[in-house]
TrEMBL record:
Protein name per its UniProtKB record: BTB domain-containing protein
InterPro entries: BACK, BTB/POZ_dom, SKP1/BTB/POZ_sf
SMART domains in the record: BACK (SM00875), BTB (SM00225)
Superkingdom in the source lineage: Eukaryota
Family annotation (Pfam families): BACK, BTB
Residue ranges of every copy of the BTB domain listed in the record: 38-105
Length: 225
């Protein structure tokens, strides 16, 4: 190999502008806010949200599939998002464009549903982690229902453990009365169940039975055994 060619090869270096991608997304978000170059309008419960197809398709297989669908008009300007609230739609788009989301106890259900429906997997992972961090005796039954609804086993498992560990407190919550017979039986039969006395279990069963006396009364004896 000629010496000059070798020297030229050794001088090659791959360079990267570290902030370029984030700067581009920042500019795209500003364009979205100002409705510039937007080529799709999402509709959530009557409210219009302007966005860019390429950004949505790159962020979600749900949108990618919608835009690539053979039955869809590629020039269609509006897309109805059924079942997603206005608030959740705003949070989802903010996350897609900024990589940030504000989750609270008040909106976590809506954002989880929206991220699941629209297949925003990174957002869903963040919401699941938020739920795990916030799961305690006051929230475990509600979050357990969410975990079962979306087949998120890690949430269900953590919630079940919390119910058994803090049974006396959890049994006072309204959500406790909505447990099914199989769910309640699973809690009572667990070796992890922590109670100070049988009286705690008895009183919890009384509250559970009274919530739907006609249908639950036959289960009382078998549950308490």
């Amino acid at each position: 190999m000629p010496e000059q060619v070798y020297r030229n090869m050794t001088r090659v270096k791959h360079l990267r502008a570290k902030q370029r991608c984030s700067d581009i997304m920042k500019a795209m978000n500003e364009q979205r806010d100002n409705k510039l170059y937007c080529d799709i309008t999402l509709v959530a419960r009557g409210k219009l949200f302007h966005a860019h197809r390429n950004i949505l398709a790159a962020s979600s297989n749900y949108f990618k599939s919608k835009f690539q669908s053979q039955g869809s008009d590629p020039f269609e300007k509006m897309l109805e998002i059924d079942g997603v609230s206005r608030l959740a739609m705003q949070h989802v788009l903010d996350f897609i464009y900024t990589n940030r989301v504000c989750v609270s106890i008040n909106n976590v259900d809506e954002i989880l549903y929206a991220s699941w429906k629209m297949e925003i997997l990174d957002l869903m992972k963040l919401v699941v982690q938020y739920i795990k961090d916030q799961l305690d005796p006051t929230t475990c039954l509600h979050f357990r229902d969410l975990g079962k609804t979306y087949s998120i086993d890690c949430i269900v498992k953590q919630a079940d453990h919390c119910v058994r560990k803090h049974f006396e407190f959890v049994a006072q919550q309204d959500d406790f009365k909505a447990l099914t017979i199989s769910e309640l039986n699973s809690v009572l039969q667990s070796h992890e169940l922590v109670v100070t006395s049988e009286k705690v279990v008895y009183e919890a069963l009384i509250r559970w039975v009274k919530y739907d006396l006609e249908s639950r009364k036959p289960y009382f004896i078998s549950l308490f055994q």
